[in-house]
Specification:
single chain; alpha/beta; 5 helices
Length: about 120
């Protein structure tokens, strides 16, 4: 088991999502901009290049101040190979639904890993 000191600085939630999801989470208080002017959220729309989404995903999974990374499931589908390769405990990756795209458990790679672990 890793010591808790390795995770003590991880106190942010990061989000990659559509405008409605980001707005709701920002209103709930998750927004943060650090000293280097790096945000902990990315608003994705139809004009956002897949390369930008993937680069942001990689940046957030490498940051040492992020504990949880939320990503809309329909956006995760755009970078599914990258999401499927991610296997670290921190930041924890969670796929969430959006207003226009309901959650589909069959597409959630994390849920599939858990089900495989428990033999389902």
């Amino acid at each position: 088991m890793a010591s808790s000191s390795a995770f003590k600085d991880r106190n942010l939630i990061a989000v990659i999502g559509d405008e409605d999801s980001i707005t709701g989470l920002l209103l709930a208080g998750i927004g943060h901009v650090n000293e280097q002017q790096k945000k902990n959220f990315l608003v994705v729309d139809t004009k956002t290049p897949v390369a930008t989404i993937e680069a942001t995903f990689n940046e957030y999974t490498e940051r040492k101040d992020i504990a949880i990374l939320l990503i809309n499931q329909h956006i995760a589908e755009k970078i599914r190979p990258t999401v499927d390769k991610y296997n670290k405990a921190f930041p924890t990756l969670l796929e969430i639904p959006s207003k226009d795209h309901p959650y589909d458990p069959s597409k959630d790679s994390i849920l599939r890993r858990v089900q495989k672990l428990f033999g389902e």
